[in-house]
Amino acid sequence: MSVKKDKLSARGVTRTSFWQAVVRDWRLYVMLILPVVFYIIFCYKPMAGLVLAFKKYSMTKGIWGSKWVGVDNFEFIINKMPDLPIALGNTLLLNFMGLVVGFPVPVVLAIMLNEIRSSGVKRVSQTLLYLPHFLSWVIIGGMVLQIFAPTTGVVNATLLRMGWISQNIPFLDEGNHWRWLYTLVGVWQSMGWGTILYLSAITGINMELFEAAKIDGANKLQQIWHVTLPGIRSTIVVLLILNIGQMMNISFDRPYIMGNPTVQRYCDVLSTFVYRAGITNGKFERATAVGLFQSVVGLIMISSANFVTKRLGEEGIW
To answer: Which tens digits make up the pLDDT trace of 101-118?
Structure first.
């Protein structure tokens, strides 16, 4: 009985403290209503449509009236759609290349920008680095075509005219060249925006640590290695976990716009596969099954990365 009373009293204290917090910070809770409603309507409510992955969809009967088929859609896409393993492999490979090549770049840029003492040069540099993030992939795709086209591109034309190459480099027509171009263009587009978080983390480091390092005789590189990087380590770890969790997800517009029929085997990823095999052919249940598969694997990957990180003594995301 005493244990039960203790539990009840503990619950009562929790309720009281919660409502006291609501009364004290009611303005913050009012501001929270709009984003909560947004997520409920546009993020959680559509999750009910995942049941479509287990049905044979009929437009006349709707989602709830369609016939239940269990895991037949998953068996079909795994056993009877040979393009799925190719799209899955391309998705993992392109995301892995982007992670290895692109993840360290914002860290380096943030450190370099932080070391710039001229405020004017720093503002101009930040603006030039952030600008590509605000360009749509349609515009970027047009720029890539003009610059790297096999015969009419600026790069090939310039290199041929200067005599540095004897034949055109197939940036957009050969698989390996296309993969590296895809990766580097993605790094260029996102590297400036990614520096914002790291710059914020760097500004939060206690300046007395830098002063102490100077007194101990540390040069600039030693200060970066022993003060700056340890100071933003938690931010790096959190963003690395989030990036690993996105290994199964890849945007539709980027590979669709930069790809072409000659490199179809290299640019076909899960998002374009879903568009082609599911939406274009009207097989919405198969598209939903692939999307659910992506989400489950992504959840497993981000949970595993978080678990390993915490086992290594770092702070995870939960």
So the answer is: 999 999 999 999 888 888
Residue 24 has a CB neighbour count (10 Å cut-off) of 10
Whether the predicted pLDDT of 11 surpasses 70: no
**Which amino acid would we find at residue 12?**
G
21 and 84 both lie in a single domain = no
Per-residue pLDDT, averaged over 91-97, amounts to 92
CATH, residue 79: 1.10.3720.10
Q: What is the number of structural domains in the chain?
A: 2
CA 195 to chain centre: 14
Q: How far apart are CA 101 and CA 108, in angstroms?
A: 12
